[in-house]
């Protein structure tokens, strides 16, 4: 069984070495996973999650250390190593498939009576002859220990001098701390050799061996802990502020891409100026590098015609010694911490302002502005509250929340929920989409819309009156799609998700006339065409519209519900009428319907 014991020892040493490498790779993947925010989490949780990842990293290294130390002990036929590896073998049984095979082999080898007798003999320990002389001299571990110590000291001194003379004392300390690894191993070997020599004249069972190898394990873990702590990054922060007159500016554009974290907050105020505040942060293993990097982050502010453009400009990080820093400070492992850049914006603008915002790994928040909002982010939430105007929003991993919106909306998220509350419907309707998340939208009670809702896995519920399959009233459906006309139909309402429910709730307010539509200068007085719509009903109710033909389809879409219902009763399909207007008909009466109680007349003049 001696050959099997040696094979088993080599296997555990190899598995321990591979485990150390695996722990390093897992930590690399885990840290990059967090820095890219694949799963959106609140910022306050990221520090805790990072600490947990370091603890997992050290735990995996500890397991690898147990394997290597146990393998060495087996080669030396130490009884404590047999017990340690035997326990590890039982644990490995649940690690299918390779761990199970190794565990079965371990139990088969180490549980044999022949193996037990082999370890009791312990030939590698000093044997005492009958005359009291030492029959066999153990291996002297002091020389390799001194070699390891010398190598660690030499590396630490040379690396520290090489980096310190060119890059500063702090960098020298961070690079030189790598010398702790060979230094710790050398001290462990040296102490082990000294203990063995003192026990040469002692009993053959060498009761102090377990304590010696336990000390070696502790020293190794301490060394690796120091190594991990050397990669912990320093964070530096600076604040950029600028105020720009708002005269002649109707739109603000912000580009905050290629950063690890980048929130944007755009809020209205009553001043006639634009205030920009940007918080710049950078993480690096070296303090002076983080400070220098932050100073090089530029916030570019430029006015182009009626638009104010704000951009985050990141510096190029190059240098003759950057490869030294990148390797010895573990930048290649903790890439997010070494190169992480956080630029967040808080911007105040006049209430009437269009916005075009684009960021990476951050949220976008908009206050009660009046204008068109184009919003883009990756790995962040979109929050819009009290905006009067069209909103177009896209996010990859995050939710979309629209509160008290007066206008149309177009929003889509890949992994997140969509919540929308509309006070008015706008002139273009509403389109909301999600891949993995629900869609909840609240609309005024008298809103008119052409509904098209679709979900693959989920239910569809509409609390508003809807004409669906020749029925009117509340409808609820599980899966597939729902199509119909809400309150007689009107602007498009398109809701789509893959995994999630769709709910259309009834709000407290009323849609009313919808937003006003500005008429273009083209009119009858200068050769243009006019559309005249007149609806009479007994009881002194009269609706009369005379607008340029170029905007007639928008006016018809905004007709009050009573007028649309009356026209429908008279056989007038508003949607078909809109299509006829868009085809540019010739002047003349399009529709004229009259009975005893009411009259509808539509003509182009």
From TrEMBL:
Claim: Membrane is one of the keywords in the record: yes
Domain DUF4097: 354-504
Pfam (any one): DUF4097
Parts of the chain that traverse the membrane: 7-31, 51-72, 84-108, 146-165, 172-193
Source species, domain of life: Bacteria
Protein name: DUF4097 domain-containing protein
Keywords for the protein's UniProt record, in alphabetical order: Membrane, Transmembrane, Transmembrane helix
Keyword match Membrane: yes
InterPro entries: Toastrack_DUF4097
């Amino acid at each position: 069984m001696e050959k099997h014991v040696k094979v088993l020892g080599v296997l555990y040493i190899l598995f321990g070495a591979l485990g150390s490498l695996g722990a390093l790779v897992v930590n690399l993947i885990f840290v990059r996973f967090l820095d890219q925010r694949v799963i959106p989490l609140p910022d306050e949780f990221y520090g805790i999650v990072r600490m947990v990842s370091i603890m997992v990293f050290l735990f995996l290294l500890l397991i690898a250390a147990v394997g290597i130390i146990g393998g060495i002990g087996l080669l030396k036929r130490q009884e404590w190593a047999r017990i340690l590896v035997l326990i590890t073998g039982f644990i490995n049984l649940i690690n299918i498939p390779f761990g199970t095979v190794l565990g079965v082999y371990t139990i088969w080898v180490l549980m044999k009576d022949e193996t037990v007798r082999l370890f009791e003999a312990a030939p590698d320990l000093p044997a005492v002859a009958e005359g009291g002389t030492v029959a066999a001299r153990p291996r002297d571990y002091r020389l390799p220990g001194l070699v390891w110590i010398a190598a660690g000291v030499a590396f630490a001194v040379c690396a520290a001098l090489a980096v310190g003379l060119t890059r500063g004392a702090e960098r020298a300390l961070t690079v030189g701390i790598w010398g702790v690894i060979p230094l710790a191993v050398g001290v462990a070997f040296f102490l082990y050799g000294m203990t063995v020599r003192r026990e040469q004249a002692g009993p053959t069972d060498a009761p102090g061996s377990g304590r010696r190898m336990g000390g070696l394990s502790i020293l190794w873990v301490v060394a690796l802990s120091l190594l991990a702590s050397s990669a912990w990054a320093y964070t530096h922060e600076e604040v950029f502020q600028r105020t720009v007159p708002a005269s002649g500016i109707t739109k603000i554009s912000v580009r905050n891409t290629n950063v690890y974290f980048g929130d944007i907050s755009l809020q209205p105020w009553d001043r006639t100026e634009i205030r920009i505040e940007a918080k710049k942060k950078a993480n690096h293993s070296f303090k002076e590098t983080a400070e220098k990097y932050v100073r090089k982050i530029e916030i570019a502010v430029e006015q182009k015609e009626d638009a104010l453009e704000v951009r985050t400009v990141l510096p190029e990080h190059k240098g003759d010694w950057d490869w030294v820093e990148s390797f010895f400070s573990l930048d290649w492992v903790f890439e997010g911490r070494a190169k992480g850049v956080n630029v967040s914006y808080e911007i105040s603008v006049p209430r009437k302002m269009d916005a075009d915002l684009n960021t990476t790994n951050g949220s976008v928040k908009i206050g009660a502005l009046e204008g068109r909002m184009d919003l883009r982010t990756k790995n962040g939430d979109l929050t819009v509250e009290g905006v009067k105007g069209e909103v177009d929003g896209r996010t990859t991993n995050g939710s979309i929340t629209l509160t008290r919106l007066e206008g149309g909306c177009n929003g889509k998220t890949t992994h997140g929920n969509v919540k929308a509350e509309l006070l008015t419907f706008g002139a273009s309707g509403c389109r909301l989409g999600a891949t993995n998340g629900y869609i909840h939208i609240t609309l005024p009670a008298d809103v008119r819309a052409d509904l098209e809702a679709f979900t693959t896995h989920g239910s569809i519920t509409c609390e508003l009156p809807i004409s669906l399959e020749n029925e009117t009233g509340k409808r609820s459906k599980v899966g597939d799609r729902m199509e119909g006309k809400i309150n007689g139909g009107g602007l498009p309402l398109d809701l789509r998700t893959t995994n999630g429910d769709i709910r259309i709730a009834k709000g407290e307010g009323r849609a009313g006339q919808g937003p006003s539509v500005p008429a273009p200068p083209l009119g009858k007085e200068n050769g243009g065409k006019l559309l005249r719509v007149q609806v009479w009903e007994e009881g002194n109710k009269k609706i009369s519209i005379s607008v340029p033909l170029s905007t007639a389809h928008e006016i018809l879409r905004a007709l009050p519900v009573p007028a649309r219902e009356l026209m429908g009763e008279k056989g007038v399909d508003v949607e078909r009428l809109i299509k006829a207007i868009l085809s540019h008909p010739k002047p003349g009466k399009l529709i004229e319907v009259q009975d005893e109680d009411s009259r509808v007349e539509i003509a182009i003049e």
